[in-house]
Amino acid sequence: MIFRPRPPSPLANLAAAGSVMLAVLVWLAPLWSGFDLFRQVWALIAIAALGLLALTLILRRWRPALICLAALVAISGPVAPEVARSITDNGRTPYPDAITTLTIATHNLWGRNEAANRAAAVLIEMDADVVALQEAFGESGDVTDRLRAVYPFEAECTRHSSRILSRLEIVESGCMQDLLIASRPAEYEWWRHQFPPSTWARIRLEDGTTAVVVSVHMTWPDPLSVQNEQRQNLAEQLRQFERNTMIVAGDFNAAAPSLALARMDRDFGLERRTRLLATWPSQGIGQRFGLGGFRLPTMFTGIDHVFAGEAWTTLSVERGPNTGSDHRPVMVRLWKVS
């Protein structure tokens, strides 16, 4: 038998080149913030690379297949630390006694949500002690009214749509922006004027101590310079409080393994408890545009997070069902030694 090598395949070679290009785009993130946007949608990049690898295998072109495989490994590199942390941070068992538990839910209601009844029902069924809301305005404004029957305490910032509802007593509350401006000297940098909509509340826990909870809605990462400025201001705002028992929850518009989210992990001084939990876009965005009967591929990125101080240990992290919003709600159960 005479061995005849398979002729080159332009399609397979093109697939290999495409895989390499995707890997390069992912790894260029440290050089320019625009490339970091590719890490924000890392799951889509990985799926595309996997599809290109499958194409070369179907065509039985082994050299392009090896190139695609190497590119896929390179694309997976930035998310490896997140995977490792998600395994080690999986729910822990609390001490047998003398503990305080707290369940917090966060949800971007979406101002164009037309299913206020469903959203309110889902949040009530989640049975959290504290609920952090974002975009609690427009067509989703009725959700807050329905939740007040279950959550008698409320904190809001009149200029923003971020709110906090609680079963536990709210001792004091206010706008994060006001808190920071009041503490700044007159000669402070005038250009740092971008503040994320955020509300804070000091909540009395069951053991008699208090913890500060913050509801935040960061802007989109494009233009990233605005989000960077919001992150810097929010980090400065958080330093106004004791962060050991602090909890910060909301829509941060940043997903792993982006450098934007890594900088939040670094600057907030808190531990992020939500890892590899896709929350956007939910089916609600399809329903809003008359696509309710068509199941769009959804939730390919996780931009809704809960950060907590070192006094808290994670018991569980859950993603809620579709509420008619373009986000899914997130619920985190925490405990601390009293």
Automatic annotation (TrEMBL):
UniProt-recorded Gene Ontology molecular function terms: endonuclease activity
Domain Endonuclease/exonuclease/phosphatase: 105-327
UniProt xrefs under Pfam families: Exo_endo_phos (PF03372)
Membrane-spanning segments: 12-35, 41-59, 66-84
Keyword Oxidoreductase attached: no
Protein name: Endonuclease/exonuclease/phosphatase family protein
Organism annotation: Hyphobacterium marinum
Top-level taxon: Bacteria
Entry-linked InterPro entries: Endo/exonu/phosph_ase_sf (IPR036691), Endo/exonuclease/phosphatase (IPR005135)
Keywords attached to this entry: Endonuclease, Hydrolase, Membrane, Nuclease, Transmembrane, Transmembrane helix
